[in-house]
């Protein structure tokens, strides 16, 4: 059984690769390279796979999942400038590919301590940067 | 090929395990254990797997699919208090996980009778919380 919970945050970013010249960045990222940055309403889906606990009828307690996401995602990124305020993007471009990998890694690293001894495991993280651009990271679809 | 039919139903429920005390239920479910119950607009997506019939060009007649889903799920669930009116939720906590399991049990044999294989069910309790079940051991 897979349970998916959706969350939202709004943040700004600028796509600019430090290893490239200004002209190359401008050509590569176009409007996304605007030096003042720009923002998105991100929507993130966190999917958890596990067995249904007979006592609670649940795979995962949504209150604990909500708390975890609040701590590890919302507080870090909501109403923030990803380039200026996130340590994760000091040496990486804050594309939503990189953001999805960062969130997946963060959640994966702390999963066992938040859900000790439970069958529930993190299956995937899916982020919509806009309703038309969507990125998904899971254990099986590549490096994160 | 996969085809998906989406339906909606509205129902009330209490997240309460009848084998536990009020206090244990309160700890386990928080506000969702409110003894008066509360409700949701559920959305159910039923996904079938099959090949289009060479003559009709259809995997299943969508009228037939709608009739089965309405008869087996929407009519018994819609505008009901699940814990009191819809077995097995007198014994089983009506979480979206358990609703997905029950929907699978209701639909899978009926669809098989009509030559279709149920691929998966998705139950949205709210637009921000949904479960997917594909018939695996749960």
Can you offer a commentary on this structure?
The complex is a heterodimer of chains A (144) and B (138). Chain A is an alpha+beta fold and 144 residues long. Chain A is elongated and about 60 Å long. Chain A is built from 4 helices and 5 strands, in the order E-H-E-H-E-H-H-E-E. Chain B is of the alpha+beta class and 138 residues long. Chain B has 4 helices and 5 strands, in the order E-H-E-H-E-H-H-E-E. Chain B starts with a strand and ends in a 5-residue tail after the last strand. The model of chain B has no long low-confidence stretch (mean pLDDT 96). Classes of the chains: A alpha+beta (144), B alpha+beta (138). Chain A binds chain B through residues 1-7, 51-52, 55-59, 62-63, and chain B through 15, 17, 20, 28-30, 92-98, 100-101, 127-133, 136-138. Strand 1 of chain A pairs antiparallel with strand 5 of chain B.
Keywords:
heterodimer; A: 144 residues; Tetrahydropterin Synthase, Chain A; 4 helices; 33% helix; B: alpha+beta; five-stranded mixed β-sheet; 30% strand
Question: SSE layout and pairings?
Answer:
The complex is a heterodimer of chains A (144) and B (138).
Chain A: E1 2-13, H1 22-29, E2 38-49, H2 62-77, E3 80-81, H3 82-85, H4 96-114, E4 121-130, E5 133-138
Parallel strand pairs in A: 1-3
Antiparallel strand pairs in A: 1-2, 2-4, 4-5
Chain B: E1 2-13, H1 22-29, E2 38-49, H2 62-77, E3 80-81, H3 82-85, H4 96-113, E4 117-126, E5 129-133
Parallel strand pairs in B: 1-3
Antiparallel strand pairs in B: 1-2, 2-4, 4-5
Number of helices of chain B: 4
CATH superfamily of chain A: 6-pyruvoyl tetrahydropterin synthase/QueD
Mean pLDDT of chain A: 95
Helix content of chain A: 25-40%
Class based on secondary structure composition and strand pairing of chain A: alpha+beta
Radius of gyration of chain A: 17 Å
In CATH terms, the superfamily of chain B is: 6-pyruvoyl tetrahydropterin synthase/QueD
CATH architecture name of chain B: 2-Layer Sandwich
Biggest β-sheet of chain B: count, sense, barrel?
5 strands, mixed
CATH class wording of chain B: Alpha Beta
Rg on CA atoms of chain B, Å: 16 Å
Overall spatial form of chain B: elongated
- What name does the CATH topology of chain A carry? Tetrahydropterin Synthase, Chain A
How much of the sequence lies in strands of chain B comes to 25-35%
The low-confidence parts of chain B are: none
What is the total tally of β strands of chain B? 5
Total helices of chain A: the number is 4
Compute the separation of the termini of chain B in Å.
25 Å
> How are strands sequenced across the largest beta sheet of chain B?
3-1-2-4-5
The strand line-up of the biggest sheet of chain A is 3-1-2-4-5
Shape of chain A: elongated
């Amino acid at each position: 059984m897979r349970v998916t919970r959706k969350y939202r945050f709004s943040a700004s970013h600028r796509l600019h690769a430090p290893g490239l010249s200004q002209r190359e960045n401008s050509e590569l990222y176009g409007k996304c390279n605007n030096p003042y940055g720009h923002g998105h309403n991100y929507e993130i889906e966190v999917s958890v796979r596990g067995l249904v606990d007979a006592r609670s009828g649940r795979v995962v307690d949504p209150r604990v999942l909500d708390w975890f996401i609040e701590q590890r995602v919302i507080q870090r990124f909501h109403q923030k400038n990803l380039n200026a305020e996130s340590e994760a993007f000091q040496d990486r471009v804050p594309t939503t590919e990189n953001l999805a990998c960062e969130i997946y890694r963060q959640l994966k690293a702390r999963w066992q301590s938040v859900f000790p001894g439970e069958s529930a495991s993190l299956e995937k993280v899916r982020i919509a940067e806009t309703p038309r651009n969507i990125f998904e990271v899971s254990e099986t679809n590549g490096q994160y | 090929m996969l085809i998906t039919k989406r339906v909606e139903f509205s129902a009330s429920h209490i997240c309460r395990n009848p084998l536990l005390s009020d206090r244990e239920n309160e700890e386990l479910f928080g506000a969702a254990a409110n003894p008066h119950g509360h409700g949701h607009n559920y959305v159910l997506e039923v996904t079938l797997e099959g090949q289009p019939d060479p003559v009709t060009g259809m995997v299943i007649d969508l009228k037939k699919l709608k009739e089965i889903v309405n008869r087996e799920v929407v009519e018994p669930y819609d505008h009901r208090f699940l814990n009191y009116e819809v077995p097995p939720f007198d014994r089983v906590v009506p979480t979206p996980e358990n609703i997905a399991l029950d929907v699978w049990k209701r639909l899978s044999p009926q669809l098989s009778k009509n030559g279709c294989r149920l691929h998966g069910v998705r139950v949205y309790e709210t637009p921000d919380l949904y479960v997917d079940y594909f018939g695996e051991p749960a």
